[in-house]
Amino acid sequence: MSLPSSSSSKQAGAGVITCKAAVAWAAGEALVIEEVQVSPPQPMEIRIKVVCTSLCRSDITAWLSQAPMFPRIFGHEASGIVESVGQGVTEFEEGDHVLTLFTGECKRCRHCTSGKSNICQVLGLERQGLMHSDHKTRFSIKGKSVYHYCAVSSFSEYTVVHSGCAVKISSSAPLEKICLLSCGVAAGLGAAWKVANVSEGSTVVIFGLGTVGLSVVQGAKLRGASQIIGVDTNPEKNEKAKAFGVTDLLNPNDYNEPIAQVIKRMTDGGADFAFECIGDTGMITTALQSCCDGWGLTVTLGVPKVKPEITAHYGLLLTGRTLTGSLLGGWKPKSDLPSLVNMYLNQEIKIDEYITHNMAFEDINEAFELMREGKCLRCVIHM
């Protein structure tokens, strides 16, 4: 694939690039397509021509937040082509196809070398809206700084990321599909495979049947789970859920008793594994209650919109249940994601089926509304 053309006022690789970006000026306000200036990559950074980016629920959550980091360019689930590299970068060159990484991997810190964690101490979650290296921004509009998001900011025709926050992938992988592996699909598959290690013949319950939840479903089915229970209040998701492998669908609104009691009856005392994929901390208690005594494991993946604190009766843990969290499914992003890309190319995992809408960059606000209204899984935005 040749490097896509841009609307830049200067040639690629020739310093500052002026291009289009969807800028959020305030919490919850419609994004505005603006001309932004994108600085050249600094040492150990790369500048990427974003080809496709998909909208993730956490983009919506952050966009609605009142955190004082505006103006801001959201987006983190993306694929693109390296346009230029900064000083010291040896693993990338112009023209490489890449996935962006909202949590990086330096491969040198205690966590990266431990084999026990994917939470890089150097390039982990960036919450200040600035670059890891110098705590500055690479975006501006008429001299006014624009904040980054999750060290990626893919709602821009060009973006700059640390070289540890991108991973080179096969040029044969379709960029308009594979972008989903930079967050949602990888997160769900990893939660089932790496974090929970779902076993053959086990019972699994998933709360929330969005892209992440359905990726857990896919992972559990491929591991040979005998019963996969999907819990969601939106009946429009039922057909998709069954196609991915859900064996039993539950809508809490259809019952006059706690849904955990329904699940315990269905599973002879509780599921082996429960996954909270909604971003509702109250639902974590329900997930724990839905697990069996002794070995029941609850994995939480969702990003809470409100009330981030978790409360649960100590008895749920005293009887042998376990609660754990999962970030990007436990994958070490640079080390592990290329193998998922290869699995997709070998038709061992599904990705295409999560894409419900393909949209032009100019229609990005429509994508936001579709996700807010629960009318899509993934909207892929073509830059």
From TrEMBL:
One GO term of the biological process aspect: formaldehyde catabolic process
Superkingdom of origin: Eukaryota
Residues covered by the Enoyl reductase (ER) domain: 28-381
Keyword annotations of the record: Metal-binding, NAD, Oxidoreductase, Zinc
A Gene Ontology term for the protein's cellular component: cytosol
Record Pfam families: ADH_N (PF08240), ADH_zinc_N (PF00107)
InterPro entries the record matches: ADH-like_C, ADH-like_N, ADH_Zn_CS, ER, GroES-like_sf, NAD(P)-bd_dom_sf
One Gene Ontology MF term: S-(hydroxymethyl)glutathione dehydrogenase [NAD(P)+] activity
Requisite cofactors: Zn(2+)
Matching PANTHER family: ALCOHOL DEHYDROGENASE, ALCOHOL DEHYDROGENASE-LIKE 6
Family, similarity comment: Belongs to the zinc-containing alcohol dehydrogenase family. Class-III subfamily.
Record text on subunit structure and interactions: Homodimer.
Protein known as: Alcohol dehydrogenase-like 6
Provenance organism: Olea europaea subsp. europaea
